[in-house]
From TrEMBL:
One of its GO terms (biological process) is endocytic recycling. One of its GO terms (cellular component) is endosome. Signal peptide: none annotated. It comes from the Eukaryota. This is PTN23 phosphatase. The lineage of its organism: Eukaryota, Metazoa, Chordata, Craniata, Vertebrata.
Amino acid sequence: MEAVPRMPMIWLDLKEAGDLSLLLSRSQSAVSVPRDFEGCSTLRKYLGQLHFLQSRIPMGNGQDAAVPVTWTEIFSGKAVTHEDIKYEQACVLYNLGALHSMLGAMDKRVSEECAAGAFTYLRDHFPHSYSVDMSHQILSLNINLMLGQAQECLLEKSMLDNRKSFLVARISAQVVDYYKEACRALENSETASLLGKIQKDWKKLVQMKIYYFAAVAHLHMGKQAEEQQKFGERVIYFQSALDKLNEAIKLAKGQPETVQEALRFTMDVIGGKYNSAKKDNDFIYHEAVPALDTLQSVKGAPLVKALPVNPTDPAVTGPDIFAKLVPMAAHEASSLYSEEKAKLLRDVMAKIEAKNEVLDQFMDSMQLDPETVDNLDMYSHIPPVLMEKCAALSVRPDTVRNLVQSMQVLSGVFTDVEASLREIRDLLEEDEAQERKLQELLGRVPPAPGSPPGLAEVSKECSKYLELHEKASFTNTELHRAMNLHLGNLRLLGGPLEQVRAALPTPSLSEDDKQVLQNLKRILAKVQEMRDQRMSLEQQLREMIQKDDITTSLVTTDRSEMKKLFEEQLKKYDQLKVYLEQNLAAQENVLKALTDANVKYAAVRKALAEVEHKWNTTVQTLVASYEAYEDLMKKSQEGKDFYTDLEGKAAKLLERARAACQASEAHRQQLLER
């Protein structure tokens, strides 16, 4: 519906309090509360303090400190007195429910669930013989009325929020179910006699609402049929809604004008829907209109509940004003209970520690780290240390060229020196050969006086330079070998990152290998989940034990009942203990599965270890090549400096050798001419 018409709601009168002769401190505001939510808060606080008082002083029926408590009965107006503090509590609870019903009937239309909760607690925890207005039948009636009205408010909100038609229909059907339960109670002769004259008024309103909300339910079932393009069903649902609304209108005679307006508005909506649907089906769709009883009935959706009442909830009662009234016996019993809790904790912790020790030893023997069990992620990117070297070379694009050029210059100088020394050696060897020929020709006589002395010095110096060259040649060869070793790596590091990534080894796993890995990781995750859950449960147990203080309960418990109370209170730990036992019992199966998975993982683990070793070696080699660059450049420069100096000396020695050989040749010619 485009708007949501509102129906009036039933609310209950509050009981009036008489005198309470002993509790002179009973707050006047608690028995004559303001009609607002602050009044509800006052009643809850007073109810809690009554409970605290009852737990310390024997004020119940037939007990030593019992005093007369008087309240009026709602329907007759008569004063009813009982010597029982629980009667005071029951009347306060009734007023709490009645006040919530009153507030719920106001414009904000809230708190019916609170009213239902108060009446439910009163019905289930207190005697029904105190007064007629707190009998089982009346309280059950009140509960159904409040739940129906709470569901009615939810229906109103759902329609305003434009919730799905089928959900709105189910919510409305549940309103009907609650009101039918209330109507059955109102039609009961015993209940009718208890209620008196208001029974007829309530019954007429509830019966009218039953038909009205049944009409709303079928209206929305028709809208759902329309959405599903079931045009025959749409007609019968709208027709049924119209029929039920007409019944509601008949029952609404004598109701306020607001009710009549709501019915007229709803009639406009449903009537319009029915006429339009029937016309469309007659002239356009021509679908058969099924009988209503052949369609599935609308099942109610109970989305409200009686909100539970906790008389001792500190959030509403405030501090216990009788807290200091704790007998010594209660303190002693509290110490005994603490020992029971400590024993429970010791037993549980012994089991946990034993299982943890087995688990730790097992995992140590496996040497499996869940974080790095496959290392596959490391192969998907270039490691930071290598990225750093690539970045450094990217801003020095001439690195490789400079190194190559430096080594080429070194090779050139090296070659020049070697050529000069070889020529000197050849000159000396030629001179020696000519000298031998001369000796043979002259009959092996000693060299004639006056032969040039410079050749011996040249020969000596040449030998020294050849020795230096030979030593440096080894160093030069090693330098070139090192350059050739690192040059390719430097070119790689200075190139595209894709090539660097491609140069790094990566594992090649089959689908079976991947499945083995995934299974192992899954079981390792189970192990960690088991550990985490175990720690969490242990922490919950410790916190629960630490906060567990039953001193208040012990105050009113007889010594003979202490053991039974302890047993009952310790049951609160049973669920946690069950969870812990399940966790500990699961360890054996988890570790067995892990053992099996590890056996299958052995071959994969070996292959991954080998690839990881190669990967680390490659990374280290590339990093070493980058770090060797500066050393290569330095040694290349030192080599150039050495050979440049040696080249100069060799060049001078070559000139001297040529001159000495020429002089020696001239001397031999003189000897031959004699």
